[in-house]
Design goal:
Elements lengths: L1 H4 L4 H14 L3 H39 L1 H5 L3 H8 L4 H18 L3 E5 L5 E4 L17 H7 L4 E6 L6 E11 L2 E11 L1 H5 L7 E5 L5 E4 L14 H10 L17 E8 L4 E8 L1 H127 L3 H30 L6 E4 H19 L1 E6 L6 E4 L1 H20 L5 E10 L2 E8 L6 H6 L17 H11 L3 E6 L5 E8 L16
Parallel strand pairs: 11-13
Antiparallel strand pairs: 1-2, 1-5, 3-4, 4-5, 6-7, 6-9, 8-9, 10-12, 13-14, 14-16, 15-16
The protein binds adenosine-5'-diphosphate.
The site of adenosine-5'-diphosphate (ADP) has 23 residues, from helix 13 and helix 15.
């Protein structure tokens, strides 16, 4: 396909030119046909002209043919013949002939004596009068005298006009008295022809041109003459010359049509120049050639168009094939990619199974570690009340030593309460671990805060931490759990004290609370170092701690956050603009009044 589209265009045109060359001979029959047609046209047209002309010529001749015989019977003419010396009779004959010639249109009429002398003539009164002249040498005279109708073409010897002579004998019984001659003017018939490309050519029995539309041809011989003919010409003098020069016509230039007039021995010819045929034929051939050329051109254009069309189809087919190939390639690429993808999916699935297995192992491991963490957490949460119990117990010992039994009893009561709290904490840890949920209850905030502060009172005093309380006088009721709230508050306050240990005096601790839209906010602020950047992000995570000195477990804030959320509240921590940490406890407002529900028992 490629090879055809890159073929040079030229050969196509060359083959077209070749085709034109092959078809060109078709012009020859065309020319032939056209020539035949135009020639026939011309011939038929000229045939009519010829017929018309001959008829006219014959008509003219016939009109005068019978005249000499009829006139010969006229008494006046007979009288003139009978008395050649009688001037009166001759004069009468002259006048009669003039009148008749005028009436019939004959050129001349004249009466001849048997010796050939003209006795009377219609032109008796003209300068070139025939009267007294002898025309015995003219054949019409001898023929008439022999009793026949005399005929003769000839140039008038005096008038120099061409004419046709009819002569007839004038008889008296068997005697011939003389002859009467009528001359018809033929110059006229020539001038009738007019100026056409076709030429008229009338030759007499000698083949000499007597009438023609071309004055140059007049009295030329169209054929060589015999000696007899030449002698007759010399004798009869029908022409202005005794030896007519030959007519030189280039035959092929002319289309000749001929009609014979037997009675005069003439042949009437129409010579039509071949140019009259050649010109329209040339036009036809030119038109034919042009048509052929146009056809060739159209054919060429059609072939070119077809070629373009084929090229386009080939191009499109090629493009389609290329596209198909590309599609096949792409499909195979895609299949390959698909296979790779499937392989990858398989590998992923495999990896995922590996991961699950690893996760299982990790869970197993973390369960073990969680166990350790749990015990650490428990000890952390219990250490504070334990420390308090120890100090109460030691104090009670001292009080008993001093027999302050009542005070010692008070300490013991406190110890008993603390153990109850410890049991509660343990239960809580368990609840935390199990994600147990207890319905929140309405708890008074201030007493819970007092309890938490009391637990840390000794340490706070030892650290000389100034406590700045800004709490409303009216009890703030919040939705919480009694123990869980104390646990949270204790944790937050212990953290604040931990932070303050890292800083020299003055150490301050602010505690404030306010009502918000449908809630209560409690703020615990210290002027310690505040949360580190990392602690701010991660303090909620279990086991995150920055404390090394006090052996922090990193569970305090995690537990607080979990408890607060379980209670429908929120724990927020941030740093105060003036330094130190600011922790915010957001809680829902609880129903105010007496706590109707029994304090939550988490021992179970
Ligand atoms: P622990 O007290 O065992 O470290 P927490 O969960 O209670 O665990 O606290 C996590 C961390 O939060 C602490 O290690 C400390 O860095 C930071 N933090 C908590 N409270 C304060 C505070 N009041 N001031 C500064 N940092 C604090």
């Amino acid at each position: 396909m490629n090879s055809t589209s890159t073929l040079p265009r030229r050969p196509r045109w060359r083959s077209l030119a070749l085709l034109a060359l092959i078809l060109a001979p078709l012009l020859w029959p065309l020319e032939h046909l056209a020539e035949r047609y135009y020639r026939n046209e011309l011939l038929s047209q000229n045939r009519q002209t010829l017929d018309l002309y001959v008829a006219n010529l014959l008509g003219t001749l016939h009109r005068y043919e019978v005249m000499p015989q009829i006139l010969g019977d006229l008494p006046a003419l007979r009288a003139a013949l009978a008395n050649p010396q009688d001037k009166q009779a001759q004069d009468a004959a002259n006048r009669l002939l003039t009148t008749i010639a005028q009436q019939t249109g004959a050129e001349v009429m004249y009466l001849m004596a048997p010796n050939g002398d003209t006795l009377a003539a219609s032109n008796w009164d003209k300068r070139d009068s025939f009267v007294g002249r002898n025309f015995a040498f003219r054949p019409y005279f001898s023929e008439a005298m022999e009793g026949r109708l005399g005929r003769f073409f000839g140039l008038g010897t005096t008038s120099a006009k061409r004419g046709y002579f009819f002569g007839a004998a004038v008889r008296d019984g068997n005697d011939v008295l003389g002859a009467l001659v009528v001359k018809v003017d033929l110059d006229n018939t020539e001038t009738l022809w007019g100026k056409t490309p076709e030429q008229l050519l009338v030759t007499d029995h000698n083949g000499v041109v007597i009438l023609t539309s071309n004055p140059g041809w007049r009295f030329r011989a169209t054929r060589p003459m015999s000696e007899e003919e030449k002698q007759a010409i010399v004798a009869n003098q029908p022409y202005p010359t005794r030896d007519p020069r030959p007519l030189l016509l280039n035959e092929p230039d002319w289309l000749t049509q001929t009609q014979q007039i037997s009675e005069t021995g003439w042949s009437v010819n129409i010579l039509a120049p071949r140019m009259l045929v050649a010109r329209p034929v040339r036009t036809v051939v030119a038109v034919g050639g042009a048509t052929l050329l146009v056809l060739m051109l159209l054919l060429g254009i059609m072939m070119q168009r077809r070629r373009h069309y084929l090229d386009r189809i080939a191009f499109e087919a090629k493009a389609r094939r290329e596209l198909e190939i590309r599609v096949i390639e792409r499909t195979s690429d895609l299949e390959g990619a698909n296979g790779r993808l499937r392989q990858e999916v398989l590998e992923r699935e495999h990896a995922q199974q590996e991961l699950f297995r690893a996760q299982d192992e990790l869970v197993q491991a973390s369960k073990l570690s969680a166990l350790g963490t749990m015990s650490a957490s428990i000890s952390h949460e219990l250490n504070q009340p334990l420390a308090a119990i120890r100090s109460y117990a030691e104090n009670a010992e001292v009080l008993l030593d001093h027999e302050r039994t009542e005070d010692a009893r008070g300490n013991l009561k406190l110890i008993s309460e603390l153990t109850g709290r410890m049991a509660s904490i343990i239960a809580h840890l368990r609840a935390f671990a199990r994600r147990d949920r207890h319905a929140p209850e309405s708890v008074a905030l201030q007493p819970a805060l007092d309890d938490a502060l009391a637990l840390l009172a000794k340490r706070r005093r030892a650290m000389e931490v100034e406590l700045i309380r800004d709490l409303p006088a009216a009890t703030l009721w919040v939705q919480a759990g009694e123990t869980r709230l104390r646990q949270v508050l204790g944790n937050l306050l212990a953290n604040a004290l931990d932070a303050l240990t890292e800083k020299g005096p003055p150490r301050k601790l602010w505690i404030s609370a306010e009502h918000t839209d449908g809630g209560v906010n409690l703020y615990i602020r210290d002027n310690g170092p505040g949360f580190s950047r990392e602690a701010l992000e991660r303090a909620r995570e279990p086991f995150f701690t920055t404390k090394t000195r006090t052996q922090g477990l990193g569970l305090g804030l995690a537990i607080c956050d979990t408890l607060m959320r379980a209670l429908g509240g929120e724990l927020l921590f941030a740093n105060h603009p003036e330094g130190g940490a600011l922790l915010t406890l957001r809680m829902r407002v609880g129903a105010s009044g007496v706590n109707l529900q029994p304090p939550e028992d988490l021992s179970a």
